[in-house]
Design goal:
This protein is an alpha+beta fold. About 30% of the residues lie in helices and about 20% in strands. The chain has one domain: Alpha-Beta Complex (endopeptidase fold (from Nostoc punctiforme)), CATH 3.90.1720. It contains four helices and six strands. Helix 3 packs across helix 4.
Length: about 130
């Protein structure tokens, strides 16, 4: 399945911490396309924003947690289709977790937020991880 086909499955999906948040959305899309589940260590470990914050505290923060899954953060100009992309305010919801991760589909970055699925320009990203 392609990245775009997988993203389309989540068009009307509802954001839910620990089930389908921004990180698990990206991991699900990558799993659909590659068969690799980068989120396996985190699945079932949290079910709320506070639970997500506790998981992030283990690694030192949002970026460090996502990096624990995907490796080193790279400059946004190095992004390739299928790469996770780091997003920050104002694209990320302003709450206790002020960063988000989306996935570059080759045209835009797709990101699942509490308000739904959004497309944002790739250069809005602050960095990317290669998968």
């Amino acid at each position: 399945m392609s990245i775009k086909e997988s993203v389309a499955k989540y068009h009307d999906a509802e954001f839910q911490y620990g089930d389908l948040d921004c990180f698990l959305f990206v991991c699900n899309v990558i799993r659909d396309a590659t068969g690799v589940d980068y989120a396996a260590p985190w699945r079932g470990k949290y079910h709320s924003q506070i639970g997500a914050l506790r998981q992030m505290a283990v690694h030192g923060g949002f970026v460090e947690t996502v990096s624990a899954a995907f490796g080193d953060l790279h400059p946004i100009w190095a992004v390739k289709p299928g790469d996770p992309v780091l997003l920050g305010p104002p694209l990320a919801e302003v709450d206790l977790i002020s960063e988000a991760v989306g996935i570059y589909d080759g045209e835009t970055v797709q990101c699942l937020t509490e308000s739904g699925l959004y497309q944002v320009p790739v250069l809005s990203g602050r960095g990317c991880w290669h998968v």
